[in-house]
């Protein structure tokens, strides 16, 4: 804080659950047996200890609000219940920063959205362009210096044939409606009732301008219907493993 030249932090988010959750970046979803193995190998910091540390920061006037990131419905509900039951001991979480885009929807929409709604936790959607894939720039192959080229292992979930097919469908929909693929993907995320705020990123000025332009783009009901049709055809395309050459 001294280096930043600030007296307090508005929002501090716990970046990852400290426990095993499964489903991280293309990994298999939660398995009870895997959870037992992880519990046997490591000692995890429980919710009470994490929130107690947050409360100390709040009482010291260093942090105003707290959130989580890459969390699950279980984690959100557990933390929310602790804060509700013991408000003097634990602060309420107000935000969750999770991946959310046209090709990464189900993880949030199928359960997590309901939990966040009832506990008044806002979604800060990150990677709305799915690692840049929804911009359409990888349709012709790798792009030098881009994320999917620089971090192929980490970004592998966006390289599978199912995600490629979904991206092509969304790009074609955007082009048919006179907008760029990025405009379609970002406008959909910006104006979703499930999203409190969208986190964008850019390495060039023209990318930033396109990101901002998309905020003024409103998608019609017919476009939303076509988006839902594509989603039904390609649900969770990033979960499909890329075929090895």
Automatic annotation (TrEMBL):
Pfam families, per the entry: Aldo_ket_red (PF00248)
Keyword check for Nucleus: no
InterPro entries: AKR_Detox_Biosynth, NAD(P)_OxRdtase_dom_sf, NADP_OxRdtase_dom
GO MF, one example: oxidoreductase activity
Domain NADP-dependent oxidoreductase: 2-231
UniProt keyword terms in alphabetical order: Oxidoreductase
Regions that span the bilayer: none
Name this protein carries in UniProt: NADP-dependent oxidoreductase domain-containing protein
Naturally occurring in which organism (per UniProt): Craspedostauros australis
């Amino acid at each position: 804080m001294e280096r930043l030249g600030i007296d307090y932090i508005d929002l501090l988010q716990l970046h990852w659950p400290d426990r095993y959750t499964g489903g991280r970046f293309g990994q298999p979803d939660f398995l009870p047996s895997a959870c037992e193995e992880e519990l046997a190998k490591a000692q995890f910091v429980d919710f009470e200890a994490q929130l107690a540390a947050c409360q100390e920061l709040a009482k010291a006037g260093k942090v105003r609000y707290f959130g989580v990131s890459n969390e699950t419905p279980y984690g959100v509900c557990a933390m929310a219940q602790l804060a509700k039951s013991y408000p003097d001991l634990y602060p309420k979480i107000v935000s969750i920063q999770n991946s959310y885009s046209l090709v990464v929807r189900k993880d949030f929409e199928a359960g997590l959205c309901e939990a966040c709604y009832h506990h008044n936790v806002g979604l800060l959607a990150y990677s709305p362009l799915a690692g840049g894939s929804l911009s359409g720039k990888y349709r012709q192959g790798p792009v030098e210096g881009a994320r999917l080229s620089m971090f192929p292992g980490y970004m592998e979930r966006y390289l599978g044939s199912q995600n490629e097919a979904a991206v092509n469908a969304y790009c074609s929909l955007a082009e048919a409606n006179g907008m760029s693929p990025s405009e379609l993907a970002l406008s959909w995320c910006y104006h979703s009732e499930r999203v409190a705020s969208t986190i964008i990123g850019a390495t060039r000025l023209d990318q930033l301008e396109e990101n901002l332009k998309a905020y003024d783009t409103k998608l019609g009901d017919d476009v939303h219907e076509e988006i839902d049709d594509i989603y039904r055809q390609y649900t969770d395309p990033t979960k499909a493993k890329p075929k090895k050459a």
